[in-house]
Amino acid sequence: MAKRRSDGGGELNLDSLMDAVTNVVGVLMIVLVMMALNTAQTVQKILSDLPPVTKEEHEQMQQQLKDLPPPPADPKKIEEDKEKAEQDLKKAIDQLKTVDTSELADVIYLDLESFRKKLDEAKQLREKEKEEVDKLLTEVERLKALLDETPIYQPPPPTYVRLPNPRPYPEKPNETRILVAKQGVLTLNEAEFIKPIIEGLEKVKTQLEYKEAKIDPFLPMLTKIFGTAPAAQKAWSEIAPLVNSFQMDQVADAYVALNAAGLQPNKSILASLGDISIAIRSTLPKVAEAVIAATKGDLAKWLALDPSKDPLKPTLKAVLAGGKISFSYGSKTEEVKAGAKEVYSYFIKDLAGLDGVKNRSRSKVIYDAFKIKAILERAAASPTLSGAYVITPTIKPGSTLVQLVLNPRAGGGETLDQMRNEGSAYQRLMRQIKADPNGVAVFQVKSDAFDTYLEARKIADDAGTPATWGFLSTLDLNINVNGYEVQRFTKPTPPAPKKPGEADPVTIAAPVKKLD
User: Fold this and answer.
1) DSSP per residue over 250-293, as a string?
2) Which residues form the domain of 86?
3) How many domains does the chain have?
4) Cα–Cα distance between 503 and 71 in angstroms, integer?
5) What is the pLDDT of residues 197-245, one digit of tens each?
6) pTM for the whole thing?
7) d(Cα 411, Cα 75) in Å, to the nearest integer?
């Protein structure tokens, strides 16, 4: 067999390898045959060396020999084939030595134990994932069952949406408040609500004034001003007569200032200074401080209280010259000696005795808050007045007006279903506001009630009612009983003094109201 040459590319020649292997197999077959022949000769030799046998035994052996298969080939031919096979085997071995085995370096030999370990891990992972899949399938079946039991979703009705339409607000609006909660609405026209209350108080106005003021409700405040409760008790007889005309904290402050300056205040002096404070539109403590400064020759504080808005035409004038002071109030001028007693006398006698100043405090009345509260409590018990609200009269320290706290009564308003009825109180109110040239519906909406507001506003828009709206933190309302000033029973906190170089605080004006 001719030896095939390699193409010189360094690759393994598989055809030559197969030829060599085939030759080797053939040689091995020949070797097997020769071994079989040698075995037959050996047997023949053994038989020839056997001792003599009988005729019967010989015939039997002859028969057995005849029964042996003939030799597969001629021994000479076998010997030739053997030599040829040995030559081919040697060529094949030489050929195998030239085979390039570098490409077999990348062959990965499998580790059977490692493979079995990986196989076991894969099985465990499969079992774990199977458990997870089974759980998911179970959950899917459960959700399908729930879905089958879930009612079909019905979308809510469409929401009414309106575009704002800004319009001017009436100059003298008659506002009706529409308090919008999630359950429905409450309505309140504050002017109409408070009108019968004020009318009732007007009928008994004189009975609401102080007849004999007691110190008890004032004592905590006066103790802070005078320093001790006994000091407040001692001064009470002098300041109590002014309870119907001035806030008692101002009277007490003026008393303390005059007393500290050695000017020995009494109810007559305090009343005179109070008349002056009303005439020049100032406060009793400021007038007292200006008078004290004037008795010491300092006229700046008095001139600073000038009520005139025109600096070229002052109402108050004071000129110190030649040991005398020329005081002017409007067209009235008085010259006095520049002494503490004379200056003090000018203020409490001359100035306080002028027409337009004398007894000015009598025109001002401060009412007894407790008497007003008692009358309002009786009125609040009437269902005609209270209506949809529970009314609680309240005296709030620091406030100069009695307040009415209105809490919505359960079931006092109207629900959306009731409002949609053409004969509902809400729709009648919307038509009444529409008929009033100055009528305005002011919707005040709680944060969780905007959907209710949209429905209520749609009814108002359909009626053509002028309206605006804003948010509301609570349904509880506080209404002041205006026109009846009462004692505040506490001294108001003064504003923080302005620091040197500090700019004036920036104030932002309230937004202009508009109909929308």
Assistant:
1) HHHHHHHHHHHTT----HHHHHHHHHHHHHTT--HHHHHHHHHH
2) 14-106
3) 3
4) 136
5) 899 999 999 999 999 899 999 999 999 999 999 999 999 999 999 999 9
6) 0.66
7) 131
